[in-house]
TrEMBL record:
It comes from Penicillium chermesinum. This is Pantothenate transporter. Keywords: Membrane, Transmembrane, Transmembrane helix, Transport. Gene3D superfamilies: MFS general substrate transporter like domains (1.20.1250.20). GO terms for cellular component: plasma membrane. Coiled coil: none annotated. It is a multi-pass membrane protein. The chain crosses the membrane at residues 30-53, 73-92, 167-188, 200-223, 269-287, 307-326, 333-353, 359-382, 394-416, 428-448. Residues 470-480 have a biased composition (Basic and acidic residues). Pfam families: MFS_1. It is found in: Membrane. GO terms for biological process: pantothenate import across plasma membrane.
Length: 498
């Protein structure tokens, strides 16, 4: 390996040769799979919003707040299943859990290719008469279950100094997908309108459905379960053992009667989801077609309404990369969270002031796009502060999404209803308030993290030889394909909250 190549390898995967060999394999198997899943989620999410302003509204006879009601119906169902879904990953092997979720891909293909299905549910609180097979934002509950599962699995394989950037890559693919969805929809308006008797807005869902099939097959082959399973066929026996040892063992990792007490009485379970909820409701000013409605009021074309908002996600990609690299380098999430919180305030304040020029609105929307970086930063922060307790990490990961969408489900109905378009002043004010509230909670969580780290409450313990040997003995009772013939490598102290 040349000098330049070695420097790049050290920068990407660290100075330890064993870590480099392991991470290089994970970064071309585990990380791409979840990133592609999130890319497809981004495509369908953007496509649903684009479709709404490109003919779907009229085709399906959306009236009043039907668009908001449909999102609410989906999000309520989604929120209920997050904690059970992530908790299951601590019991069942992720390979089987994720592969089961992949069956949704087949359902999506069948639904969109073979007809314009009507969902046979009645929304008593709305006048929605017709709905396509896709849930709001063009996604399925399985997509979201895989997303929180991805966060849990990534946190099980990567160290604190590695996790931020990997989570960032995962999130970036979602932003790229969101951008691509807008571009694809804009292109379809020109090329496929009326082809096969279908409007352009339906072709996007067919195309995305076909794209999901190879991704699902890739996942079936390459999902490596968790390090303690030692089941990744593409890792050597030594690498499987190294992966199990290098992060250390959690202090708590079994299901017993103490689980619910220690979870419900922990500050992690309540504060991190609350903080993430504040972010999610704040950035509703970047979603719900808010920018597109404003552009329509200013006379921009439908194609421009599809294309210009994609720059929000270009800003998100830039912000996510920069903040993730810094947070991994300094091994601190709170220090990069403070400028993000300030950006919430600045972007919202510009919109509240109702700029006299279009440039002011574009600056506010695009600047606020960088705040999407907290998806990577705060999920990594959650993994950092719950590293000592497997059940706490799994349940809190699910609750972080559930609590978030418990608010997002109704927030747009109150603050960003389509009937207010294009003037969402009360929504901008709400974003200013919730964005400002993130700062004191960032400070509180940083204080509690430092306190509990100093007390030894947040840490992983080194895996000693006796524990490795006991684990090896237990695995001898498993099927032969899961066994490892090599002896455990030397114990390595885990990197913990430094």
């Amino acid at each position: 390996m040349g000098s330049a190549q070695k420097k790049l390898a050290v920068w990407l995967w660290g100075p330890d040769p064993s870590d480099r060999r392991l991470l290089a394999k994970l970064d071309v198997t585990l990380l791409p799979y979840f990133s592609l899943i999130w890319f497809l989620f981004g495509v369908t999410r953007a496509s649903y919003s684009s479709a709404y302003i490109s003919g779907m509204k009229e085709a399906l006879n959306f009236q009043g707040k039907d668009y908001n009601y449909m999102n609410t119906a989906y999000l309520v169902v989604y929120a209920v299943f997050q904690m059970p879904g992530t908790s299951l990953l601590t019991i069942a092997r992720p390979k089987y859990d994720e592969s089961f979720m992949a069956s949704d891909f087949v359902e999506r293909v069948r639904g969109w290719i073979f007809g314009h299905r009507i969902v046979s549910i009645s929304l008593s609180f709305g006048s929605l008469h017709q709905q396509t097979a896709e849930p709001p934002n063009g996604t399925s509950n399985a997509d979201w279950l895989q997303s929180v599962g991805a966060q849990f699995i990534l946190g099980s394989w990567y160290k604190k100094s590695e996790l931020g950037m990997r989570t960032a890559v995962f999130c970036i693919f979602g932003h790229i997908g969101t951008m691509a969805g807008g571009w694809i929809q804009a292109g379809l308006l020109h090329t496929l309108q009326g082809r096969g008797g279908l409007p352009a807005w339906k072709w996007i869902f067919i195309i995305v459905s076909v794209m999901t099939i190879p991704v699902a097959l890739f996942g079936w082959v390459f999902i490596p379960d968790l390090p303690e399973h030692r089941s990744a066929w593409y890792l050597t026996a030594e690498q499987r053992e190294h992966a199990f040892i290098r992060l250390g063992a959690p202090l708590k990792q079994t299901w017993d009667l103490s689980v619910f007490r220690r979870v419900l009485l922990s500050w992690q379970f309540w504060l991190l989801p609350f903080l993430f909820m504040l972010y999610s409701v704040c950035v509703q000013m970047l979603q719900n077609n808010v920018m597109a409605y404003w552009m329509a009021s200013r006379g921009y074309s439908t194609i421009q309404q599809n294309n210009y908002p994609t720059a929000i996600y270009a800003a998100a990609i830039f912000g996510t990369i920069v903040y993730a690299i810094i947070s991994d380098k300094i091994q601190s999430r709170w220090e990069v969270s403070v400028p993000i919180g300030l950006t919430f305030i600045i972007g919202s304040a510009i919109l509240v002031s109702e700029p006299s020029t279009d440039a002011g609105y574009f600056v506010a929307f695009y600047l606020s796009g960088t705040t999407f970086a907290v998806q990577a930063i705060w999920y990594s922060w959650l993994a950092d502060v719950t590293s000592h307790d497997v059940q706490l990490r799994a349940i809190t990961t699910g609750f972080m999404n559930s609590f978030d969408f418990a608010f997002v489900a109704w927030w747009p109905l109150v603050f960003f209803p389509v009937t207010d378009a294009p003037n969402f002043h009360k929504g901008y004010v709400a974003s200013l308030v919730t964005g400002a509230l993130t700062l004191p909670f960032i400070g509180l969580i940083a204080y509690l993290e430092k306190r509990d780290t100093n007390r030894g409450l947040i840490k992983r313990v080194p895996v000693d030889d006796s524990l490795a040997e006991e684990d090896q003995r237990l695995r001898e009772d498993e099927p032969s394909q899961n066994k490892s013939s090599d002896a455990p490598v030397n114990t390595r102290t885990a990197e913990v909250d430094v």
